[in-house]
Amino acid sequence: MQADLTLQRLNGLTIMATLTYQFHLTQVAVAGQNVYEDYQVEITKIEWLMPYVVLSDKHKIKLLNHLEKDRPITMSFCSWELYEYPLLPSKSKHVWTVKTANQLEKPRFVILGFQTNRKGRKTANASRFDHCNISNVTLFLNSQHYPYGNLNLNITNNQYALLYDMYANFQNAYYNKEVEPMLKKADYLSYAPLIVIDCSKQNESLKQASVDVRLEFEARANIPVGTSAYCLILHDRIVEYNPMSGDVKKIV
């Protein structure tokens, strides 16, 4: 995976975008046959369709007067960062120091997922995740931890209701919408048993210093050989854009 922060100027409008790209097209199966071939995809053109707004003369004058004052324009959005642990050791407990976040990149949500023997394998569905019989996951931001109690999961005995609730409630906490999970509980374990941790409520000590992001997780048995871990960190981002100079400044 590669990520690059770029500035692009389109029709006089400067756009800041984070471009992340990763291509793993490892298989194309012939219909009805267990025959696989490797293919390479070459992208030669990407079009970014954007609405073009034409102002009336009255509003155009107001806009030009505002630009002449050289006031910065504030823009806010959410940034998503993906981290990978390529090969977990085959043991029941593991500690993963994901990153050290600065004051401008405080995590709001952390999503953890596992895949066993799926990467680069033609016969495995790389779009699905595995639960690896996880019994507990704890996210540490310095000394503060989330969730506050032990999950005490026992997936083989069908005890994972709390894990599914954490996944389902993400829509309400992040998008501020009614909970309508894409996966029903019956399909959750088979397709995407992702562990969603809400760490948006933080005390003042975390807001004034850099933060070490660390994950500790346990399983009922040793984590299977060939298991990779993926951590998606969501944090707020606020930038100021100066329309006269085209400068972009990070605020949060």
UniProtKB/TrEMBL annotation:
This is Double jelly roll-like domain-containing protein. It comes from the Eukaryota. PANTHER family: PROTEIN CBG23766, RETROVIRUS-RELATED POL POLYPROTEIN FROM TRANSPOSON 412-LIKE PROTEIN. Residues 31-239 form the Double jelly roll-like domain.
